[in-house]
Amino acid sequence: MSDLLFDDVTVHFGAARAVHGVTLAVPSGTTVGLVGESGSGKSTLARAAVGLSPITSGRVLLDGADVTSTRRRPLQMVFQDPYSALNPRMTIGESIAEPMPREARKGAAARRAAVADLLARVSLDPGRASMLPGQLSGGQRQRVALARALAGRPKVVIADEITSALDVSVQGAILNTIRDLRQELKLTMLFISHNLAVVRYVSDHIAVMYQGAIVECGPTDQIITAPAHPYTQDLLDAARLCRARSGTG
């Protein structure tokens, strides 16, 4: 795994400023949580990293090398919608095997073994490899999408709102899987969510994004216990109110 750095990244869509002058580091082997309300620019920043949104200025660096001009970027992204992320005509095993490096796809037996290992890592029965996405629940599909991202052996995984479309009970299970993978694989991950409580659970550091800019960044405990920016305090208050309404506070 490697260090990811957004270096003064700006993304404009015509006259609209989605991201402006963002500098953010994701150190190797850590999970950085990027939190902000809808429209804050966090998903645009993620899409810029993997080449899905054009960068107006700035760079995305991996171990000091600029990846914004490379055709195949050593990053994998897990998207919010588990229903559209997978090809409905491909089996689970085929979807996971598709991004594997060429050497890992040599030989049917080796390919099946690699797929089975990845399914087990995301807490899915390897026997589901022969199933189609339509036969799985939303939570199971999101686990498959995570396994598919890992199959590409990326240096960094970017998870963009991967629990927001799931039921609360399923969210917890997915977050526990993320925590387990962090420990087992020493993942380097940018974990994006509008929910500060979710980000807190999986992240070593938290960056708060507001109106296209990073307004606060630091170790998770520091951000939670001593927020420096009023917007961060608003997010904390919202998380507390949500817990109180659900009876978990």
Structural notes for this entry:
With 249 residues, the chain is an alpha/beta fold. The chain has two domains: 4-74 and 155-246, 3-Layer(aba) Sandwich (Rossmann fold), CATH 3.40.50; 88-153, no CATH class. It contains eight helices and ten strands. It has a six-stranded mixed β-sheet with strand order 6-7-8-3-9-10, sandwiched between helices. Strands 2-1-4-5 form a four-stranded antiparallel β-sheet, covered by helices on one side. Strand 1 and strand 2 form a beta hairpin. The longest helix has 18 residues, at 168-185. The protein starts with a strand and ends with a helix. The model has no long low-confidence stretch (mean pLDDT 90).
Please describe the topology of this protein.
Blueprint (H helix, E strand, L loop, with lengths): L3 E10 L2 E11 L4 E5 L6 H8 L7 E6 L2 E2 L8 E4 L13 H6 L10 H14 L16 H14 L4 E5 L7 H18 L3 E5 L2 H7 L2 E6 L2 E7 H6 L4 H17 L3
Helix pairs in contact: 3-4
Record keyword descriptors for this entry:
249 residues, alpha/beta, Rossmann fold, 2 domains, 4-stranded antiparallel β-sheet, 36% helix
Structure, briefly:
This protein is an alpha/beta fold and 249 residues long.
End-to-end gap: 36 Å
Main beta-sheet annotation? 6 strands, mixed
Overall spatial form: globular
Structural category: alpha/beta
Proportion of helical residues: 25-40%
Mean pLDDT: 90
List the strand order in the largest sheet.
6-7-8-3-9-10
- Succession of helices and strands: EEEHEEEHHHEHEHEEHH
**CATH hierarchy, class of the largest domain:** Alpha Beta
Q: What is the correct CATH architecture of the largest domain?
A: 3-Layer(aba) Sandwich
CATH superfamily of the largest domain: P-loop containing nucleotide triphosphate hydrolases
For the CA atoms, what is the radius of gyration?
Answer: 18 Å
